[in-house]
């Protein structure tokens, strides 16, 4: 994709081809339609880049102070290399745009692919064809609002936050000093709030524009016109509030504010003007000086902007995201009009020329937009690679008796579904349990008889007497822990999911190839269920394609469950869906070749359709909104005039030339954990084949990952075999 960049050392501007950003959890990938040039902030940055090194230093004394501190700490040579390396690199431009959601990351449920959004942030709403934008820095564009107008969202939020800081009230009089882009928006917002406005700017054209947009009067601050208008509107008392929306090095705006403000009036700094406050003037009137920090509360807070942690509305009514949504609403309802502010619309490919014309003064503008190429043509169907494992396998050695096992993690699933089956098994020794907290390790040691309990994972991986490692931790750590254990030469049992991303899966397989150790099992236990295995045997061999339906009544999670931490731990389906895909693939005796997924609003309920090489299909309905009393898992398989039905691992039946129904006596649901563990321990002890081929584990994991890609892209995802 293309992006506008600048080299701060040389001042060079360029439109570069750069990699497309990934769609990380907690945000969306947005294709730009229009982005707005800030003729104040951005042109100041462009101008600074063209200065000499001395000029740059004078313009950024704050950075000079940091450099001097670095010199004192690290010395001149190291500081010089660091500073030059930072200066002599490309930096992005832009922070306000409107575009179309192209991909939705995990944890996002308020927008979908194809939605029009306004985006903010000098790291996320750049002049680029594609941007990844975290949740709190975008807002859906109201119906009917034109994309060029929605591109003003960020700049409008800056103006709106400034007005909020002034706390205007009906009937008050305000003075706006500086009638550039921000100033013009402040004028309109104040007028919409029932405030009478006077504008001040040396440019007659901007003064005329402000009067057309709602100012009672506007004029050159050096003339008597502004003072006369203030006196007439306030009865000689002075304005209730002043908004400093001017830039530059003059102290005139600050002095004018003091002269025309009433006693105990409010002065709000929105722009970046010189602030040498005349002490006597401000003291005698006891003026309230306030600062407006960019788009609003949340700005510069990484937990809010990057991690999506919102502030409770009862404590922080207007965050930067709520300001953004509010300004878009004002635009949609016609309370603010930005069309008169648009001086020029440039094609994105002409970005460098446009900046140069603005810098040189050839293009005089209040607001300039970049228009991006239209990409509404049908995109190719996305594809997810299914890596093919190619490994020079080291011969598996038979383990000693008993088989010595280590557990990494001792949470609820490990202690309730795995360890009870292993603690009393002949030929098994529970050697070591590793947890991040000492108490949980000690509890597991006491309950299940581990020889040792520790928090030192490295010691366990380095212990040559341990034959196999169980990874039973939170989802986000599975791939990395598996990779490390394989490299350490251990046989590995990892609970699902094996990986949450394609990169994580590739990392695991890279460890297999590097070590020659492919001794891996993922906890897909349902294929080991005695009831399901008997039903499959009675169904017999297929000759034609099959149709499989799998209904999973997953239910709602309790508030506070870590499964809800989708940004860190992946979606619920990413964590659990591999079970059902593996079961379907085992019953159909093949790996899927494509995945199509659709979801209800909020991605709570999913429909996943898997297609197989022989034309068979499997539909998995994963629902969280079903009744608690309904069975969790029901499965139907139909082919060749026969049907297999499984009722929640309690009963099973097969219909064909003969009918078979399992026992009607109530039984505990055996989902196969005991048989799965027995098969795993046998493979470790004998050095024989693993219970499930590695390529099958990889294919199931890739298909699970493809569900999220399918939801984001709205099209079937091909599962393409690759290295």
TrEMBL record:
Name used for this protein in its record: Oxidoreductase
Keywords: Metal-binding, Oxidoreductase, Zinc
Domain Gfo/Idh/MocA-like oxidoreductase N-terminal: 404-524
This protein's record includes keyword Nuclease: no
Organism of provenance: Streptomyces coeruleorubidus
InterPro entries (alphabetical): ADH-like_C, Gfo/Idh/MocA-like_OxRdtase_N, GFO_IDH_MocA-like_dom, GroES-like_sf, NAD(P)-bd_dom_sf
Family: Belongs to the zinc-containing alcohol dehydrogenase family.
Gene Ontology molecular-function annotations: metal ion binding; nucleotide binding; oxidoreductase activity
């Amino acid at each position: 994709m293309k992006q506008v960049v600048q080299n701060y050392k040389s001042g060079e501007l360029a439109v570069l081809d750069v990699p497309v950003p990934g769609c990380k959890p907690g945000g969306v990938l947005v294709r730009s339609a229009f982005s707005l040039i800030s003729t104040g902030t951005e042109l100041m940055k462009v101008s600074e880049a063209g200065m000499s090194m001395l000029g740059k230093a004078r313009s950024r004394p704050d950075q000079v102070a940091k450099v001097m501190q670095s010199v004192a700490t690290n010395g001149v040579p190291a500081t010089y290399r660091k500073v030059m390396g930072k200066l002599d690199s490309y930096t992005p431009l832009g922070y306000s745009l409107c575009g179309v959601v192209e991909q939705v990351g995990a944890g996002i449920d308020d927008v979908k692919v194809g939605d029009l959004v306004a985006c903010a942030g000098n790291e996320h709403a750049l002049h680029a064809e594609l941007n990844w934008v975290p949740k709190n820095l975008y807002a859906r564009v109201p119906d009917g609002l034109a994309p060029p107008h929605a591109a003003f969202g960020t700049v409008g939020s800056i103006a709106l936050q400034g007005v909020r800081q002034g706390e205007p009230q009906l009937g008050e009089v305000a003075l706006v000093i500086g009638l550039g882009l921000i100033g013009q928006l402040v004028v309109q917002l104040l007028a919409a709030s029932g405030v009478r406005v006077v504008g001040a700017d040396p440019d007659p054209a901007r003064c005329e524009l402000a009067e057309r947009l709602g100012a009672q009067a506007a004029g050159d601050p050096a003339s008597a016109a502004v003072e006369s208008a203030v006196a007439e509107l306030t009865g000689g008392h002075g304005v209730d509030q002043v908004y400093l929306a001017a830039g530059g090095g003059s102290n005139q705006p600050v002095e004018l504010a003091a002269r025309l403000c009433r006693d105990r009036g409010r002065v709000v700094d929105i722009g970046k003007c010189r602030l040498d406050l005349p002490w006597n003037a401000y003291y005698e009137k006891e003026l309230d000086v306030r600062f407006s920090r960019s788009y609003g509360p949340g700005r510069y807070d990484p937990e809010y902007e990057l991690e999506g942690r919102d502030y409770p509305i009862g404590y922080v009514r207007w965050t930067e995201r709520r300001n953004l949504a509010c300004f878009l609403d004002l635009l949609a309802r016609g309370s603010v009009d930005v069309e008169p502010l648009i001086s020029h619309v440039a094609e994105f490919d002409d970005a460098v020329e446009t900046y140069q014309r603005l810098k040189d003064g050839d293009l005089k503008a209040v607001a300039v937009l970049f228009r991006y190429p239209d990409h509404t043509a049908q995109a190719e169907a996305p594809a997810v690679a299914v890596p093919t494992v190619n490994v020079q396998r080291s011969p598996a050695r038979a383990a000693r008796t008993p088989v010595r096992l280590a557990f990494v993690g001792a949470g609820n699933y490990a202690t309730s579904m795995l360890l009870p089956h292993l603690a009393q098994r002949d030929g098994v020794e529970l050697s070591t349990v590793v947890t991040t907290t000492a108490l949980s390790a000690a509890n597991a040691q006491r309950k299940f008889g581990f020889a040792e309990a520790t928090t030192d994972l490295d010691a366990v991986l380095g212990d040559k007497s341990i034959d196999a490692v169980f990874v039973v931790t939170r989802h986000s750590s599975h791939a990395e822990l598996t990779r490390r254990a394989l490299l350490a030469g251990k046989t590995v049992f990892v609970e699902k999911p094996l990986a949450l991303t394609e990169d994580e899966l590739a990392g695991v397989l890279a460890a297999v190839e590097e070590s020659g150790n492919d001794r891996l099992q993922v906890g897909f236990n349902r294929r080991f269920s005695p009831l399901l295995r008997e039903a499959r045997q009675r169904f017999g061999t297929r000759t034609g394609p099959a149709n499989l339906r799998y209904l999973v009544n997953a239910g709602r999670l309790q508030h506070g469950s870590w499964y809800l931490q989708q940004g860190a731990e992946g979606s619920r389906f990413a964590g659990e869906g591999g079970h059902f895909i593996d079961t379907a693939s085992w019953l159909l005796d093949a790996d899927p070749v494509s995945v199509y997924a659709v979801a209800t609003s909020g991605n709570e309920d999913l429909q996943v359709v898997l297609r197989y090489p022989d034309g068979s299909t499997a539909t998995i309905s994963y629902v969280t909104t079903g009744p608690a009393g309904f069975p969790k898992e029901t499965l139907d398989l139909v082919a060749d005039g026969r049907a297999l039905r499984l009722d929640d691992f309690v009963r099973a039946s097969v219909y064909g030339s003969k009918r078979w129904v399992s026992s009607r006596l109530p039984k505990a649901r055996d989902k196969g954990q005991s048989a799965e563990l027995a098969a795993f321990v046998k493979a470790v002890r004998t050095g024989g084949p693993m219970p499930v081929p590695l390529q099958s584990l990889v294919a199931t994991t890739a298909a699970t990952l493809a569900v999220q890609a399918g939801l984001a892209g709205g099209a079937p995802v091909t599962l393409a075999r690759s290295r």
